[in-house]
Amino acid sequence: MKTGIVLEGGALRAIFSSGVCDGLLEGGIMPDYLIGVSAGIAYGVSYLSQQPRRNLEVVTTYAQDRRYMGINNLADKNNRSYFGLKFAYDTIPNELIPFDYDTFAAYPGQVEAVVTNLNTGKADYMEVPRRDRHSLLLQVTCAMPLMFPIYHINGQPYLDGGVGDSIPWRHALEQGCDRLLVVLTRPRSYVRKPTGMMHLIRKTYRKYPNFVAAMEHRAEEYNKDREALFEKERKGEVLVIAPDSTLGVARIERNPDKLRLLWAKGYQAAVDRLDEIRAYFSGSEG
Question: Alpha-carbon distance 259 to 257, whole Å?
Fold first, then answer.
């Protein structure tokens, strides 16, 4: 039996799934496989490094810090991202709120991040390096269109994994997970609407028509994918945790109190279902 956890992205809204992971960690639950998208996996590695509340400390300490995020970072020709890349992915984990690379390296399971190939417009799934002190792959999976530079890996251009596969539950099943927990960052009632930025997307990424097409159909594909996931859940084939509300938390939320409350929602959602999740992962449910 192979257990797996899937973590949706959503930038700072992913503090909800971080709360879920903290609840699971304190409940002694660790999967054989973990895959995440964007902030889902950027936060998820702290679960595998067994550092509860680390992400909460990061976002509540630095959400209002211009070095962490702000329009000035986007205007910096050496940064070209809304987020301060060196500060967020190097200074914080290596100096200010240290990431435990040793414990992460000792995690015996498989951990993957989703990135979107601009040439194909499709998702690629990559193993997360255990000791990358610059967090390159985590930067790539978080690279929201128009808010990050294009990254290149093995000669291929990449951006945010959420464009190609926002909730990679199908890939997790293909990797052999027969017990799967999917953590969403939007309520079950949420319906994604097409982006109002398509004119800018078309202009900025005109060299990548497959990526532009993926962006044009993203909302439709996302909504269909969630419906298929919920049908899987109704059949008892996966477990799903989703917030009943995001409390108005934005992708680039700066209010520490709102972030704490959304984290707490995730934490409580996990705690309330610990027995169910343990039984499901052990194959003894029912």
Answer: 5
Tokens describing residue 204: 């900025």
Please give the full DSSP string across 108-173, using - where no structure is assigned. Answer: -SEEEEEEEETTTTEEEEEEPPSS-TT-HHHHHHT--TTTS--EEETTEEEEEHHHH-SSTHHHHH
Separation of alpha carbons 118 and 158, rounded Å: 6
Strands 122-127 and 151-153, sheet pairing: unpaired
Contact criterion met (CB below 8 Å) for 256 and 60: yes
- The answer to whether 120 and 210 are in contact (CB under 8 A) is yes
Q: Could you tell me the two tokens for 98?
A: 């240290």
| Residues ≥6 apart with Cβ < 8 Å to 16 | 10, 183, 185, 243, 246, 262, 263, 265, 266
| Residue with token string 């969403």 | 184
Among 114, 239, 149, 251, CA closest to 195: 251
Instruction: Please classify residue 28 by burial: count the beta carbons closer than 10 Å to its beta carbon, then call 0-12 exposed, 13-18 middle and 19+ buried.
Output: exposed
Residue 283: what pLDDT? 86
pLDDT digits (tens, 9 = 90+) for 193-210: 999 999 999 999 999 999
Q: Is the pTM for the entire model greater than 0.90?
A: yes
- Between CA 2 and CA 4 the distance in angstroms is 7
Q: What is the pLDDT of residues 139-159, one digit of tens each?
A: 999 999 999 999 999 999 999
Task: Return the ∠ at Cα 173 (arms to 168 and 176), rounded to 5°.
Answer: 135
